TrEMBL record:
Pfam families: GP46. This is Uncharacterized protein. The lineage of its organism: Bacteria, Pseudomonadati, Pseudomonadota, Betaproteobacteria, Burkholderiales. It comes from Rhodoferax koreensis. InterPro entries: Phage_Mu_Gp46.
């Protein structure tokens, strides 16, 4: 994987751009957030970002860790749908008292796989 490989940047944008909250989501505030450009998506319903931001004020419990993994999987699902990857594997775990770490493995059909880790993904949410 060279410096010109856009996949790591795409993964970071997908995970840490605030995706629009769904109507049933519990909000940490009053805003549903989300990227304004989603209103003009060329593919109806196509969204950028993740709902990881919804966990910003949550206590780190096993349920929070599970939800973080699910939100990350959801945010990266487009990689498989668009044929960039044949599989996306996300692992989340509590790291100490105040951290959640994420590991994202992107299996690509025609290029080297990407294994990207965020040892303190929680810090990206609580800025």
């Amino acid at each position: 994987m060279g410096l010109r490989d856009p996949l790591p940047r795409a993964v970071i944008i997908s995970l840490f751009t605030w995706g629009r909250a769904r109507p049933a989501d519990d909000l940490p505030g009053t805003e549903r957030c989300g990227w304004w450009g989603d209103s003009f998506a060329s593919v109806p319903g196509d969204r950028i970002g993740s709902r990881l931001w919804l966990l910003a004020r949550a206590k780190i419990t096993q349920q929070t860790v599970t939800q973080a993994r699910e939100y990350a999987e959801e945010a990266l699902a487009w990689l498989v749908a668009d044929g960039v990857a044949s599989q996306v594997i996300v692992e989340a775990e509590r790291a100490g008292v105040s951290q959640i770490s994420l590991r994202c493995q992107i299996v690509r059909p025609d290029a080297a796989n990407l294994d990207i880790r965020f040892n303190d993904a929680w810090s990206f949410l609580n800025v």
